[in-house]
Amino acid sequence: MKLLGLKEIRKKKGYSQLKVAMGLNMSRESLSYYENGKRCPDVETLLMFSDYFDVSVHYLITGKEFVPKYK
Prior knowledge:
Largest sheet: none
Number of helices: 5
CATH topology: 434 Repressor (Amino-terminal Domain)
Number of strands: 0
CATH architecture: Orthogonal Bundle
Strand content: under 5%
Order of helices and strands: HHHHH
Structural class: mainly alpha
Oligomer: single chain
Radius of gyration: 12 Å
CATH superfamily: lambda repressor-like DNA-binding domains
């Protein structure tokens, strides 16, 4: 699963992969794997990214903010 919003939000904030990786205590390569869909994040990792970037998990997965559908 590629996290469509991860690279986008990182770039919007002007952060390098190295800065984010160091802030999250992971290797730059691991972050790159998550951004490019070579590694699937577990729930803890999704929540870690969500907290770090202050975005929803839904945004990280889809690249779009969640909009509820009302009937």
